[in-house]
Amino acid sequence: MDFIGLPTNYDCDDFNTIVEYYPVTTVPDALQGWAFKLIQSNTQKFYENSSIGWNASDKLKELSEAGARYLIARQVHTINNNIIIGNPIGFVMFQFTFEETMADDDSKIETIYCYEIQLTEEARNKGLGTFLMNTMEGIGKYWGMKKSMLTAFKENTAALNFYCNHLGYEIDEISPSRCVDPEYIDDYDYEILSKRL
Question: What pTM was computed for the model?
Answer without folding.
Answer: 0.91
